[in-house]
Amino acid sequence: MSNLSLDFSDNAFQPLAARMRPENLAQYIGQQHLLAPGKPLPRAIEAGHLHSMILWGPPGTGKTTLAEVIARYASADVERISAVTSGVKEIREAIERARQNRNAGRRTILFVDEVHRFNKSQQDAFLPHIEDGTITFIGATTENPSFELNSALLSRARVYLLKSLTTDDIEQVLDQAMNDKTRGYGGQDIVLAG
């Protein structure tokens, strides 16, 4: 009989990317044009002064991760919707939970991944709830918001362009993964060839 531990309480079975996901702005790599010290966005995030926003950029630039970091600083509940797999029913359910949070004195961030996949009327469904403060809206898109999102939604959110990671950024991500003994491969006998 093996003494193999089947304790799933830690994150050892999560993919490396999930284990290494940044938990704060100091751990977030890239997007220095938005997140460098002294820039308006990190000052607002660190102060917990949220505003609705659209995070626009290519896949793999950290849109979802940035939304999660923002939520941590805001001490807000997060409702997540994927426009690929959700519809009006899921929007209504998320808004209802946000309304309950507001009534209990808690903030809610509604994160909508691939927001450009929602049609114009689905996008309109968020407007009254952004306006009355029920939600702080964060949408992520790989498509140009000026063409794919309706103007009413755009007028209620700031658009932030996330750029592809640089070679230096990617090297820094790899360095962290290889050296972090808690979440990454630090302490293991692994060598990257290249």
Task: Write the topology of this structure.
Elements: H1 16-19, H2 32-35, H3 40-47, E1 53-56, H4 63-74, E2 77-82, H5 88-103, E3 108-113, H6 120-124, H7 127-131, E4 136-141, H8 145-148, H9 151-154, E5 158-161, H10 167-179
Parallel strand pairs: 1-4, 1-5, 2-3, 3-4
- Helix-strand pattern: HHHEHEHEHHEHHEH
Distance between the termini: 41 Å
The name of the CATH superfamily of one domain reads: P-loop containing nucleotide triphosphate hydrolases
What are the low-pLDDT stretches, counting only 5+ consecutive residues below 50?
1-8
Report the principal-axis shape.
globular
Q: Which CATH first-tier class of one domain would you pick?
A: Alpha Beta
Instruction: Give average pLDDT, whole number.
Output: 91
CATH architecture term of one domain:
3-Layer(aba) Sandwich
Fill in the CATH topology of one domain: Rossmann fold
Order of strands across the main sheet: 2-3-4-1-5
Number of helices: 10
Task: Report the radius of gyration as a whole number of Å.
Answer: 19 Å
How many strand segments? 5
Q: Tell me the strand percentage band.
A: 5-15%
Helix content: 25-40%
Structural class: alpha/beta
Task: Give an overview in words.
The protein is an alpha/beta fold and 194 residues long. The protein has a domain at 30-164: P-loop containing nucleotide triphosphate hydrolases (Rossmann fold, 3-Layer(aba) Sandwich). 39% of the residues lie in helices and 13% in strands. It has a 5-stranded parallel β-sheet, sandwiched between helices. 25% of the residues are buried.
